[in-house]
Amino acid sequence: MLFIVQSEASLQLRIAALSATSNPETSMATTTSSNDFKNGMTLVLPDGLYTIVEFQHVKPGKGGAFVRTKIKSVRTGQVLERTYRADEKVEQAIVEKREMQFLYRDGEQYVFMDMTSYDQLNVGPAALGSATNFMKEGDSITLSTYEGEVVASELPAAVELTVTETEPGLQGDRVSGARKPATVETGLVLQVPLFVNVGEKIKVDTRTGEYLTRA
Length: 215
Known about the structure:
The chain is mainly β and 215 residues long. The protein is built from two helices and 16 strands. Mean pLDDT is 84; it is low at 1-26.
């Protein structure tokens, strides 16, 4: 008969590994290189979580190469400029993506419901960024979370929104390309063709905030 003896430390490591695997909400972090930066990547810095908004690899004539970045604080929305050496090691947050439904606003907070667990989550406007311009009650949105904190949001490339305020439409003007300001139900103001009227649904590009077509 064969007996396998495990040390207490080894057993604890195995239990921890199994626990992390069985819990989908366990947050993780890994080390990445500044050479591998991408827009939307979330970094774990000493003063909090930051999302990369913009980056540029620079190779000066003299001196070492470096990466110039603009990063946005997940908590406050503040955008900072940071410079990293080429191939500098930085901690990257491994985030969990959750399909959520936008329920309603509660003061400055946006209340979402997890489509799987039905848990509710309050999210501040800084974490959602420009997504608040395109969200209607009942809409689905993908939220990326790290240790229970929302770090990013994903919307469809285009959404349908109702025009709530604009000047009366000019039906005959469809070719001049002239535009006028219009307000949609989320409060977003954008430029639309002259023939668009109040009450009409239009498609809006969530990446640029621009009018695409009538819905």
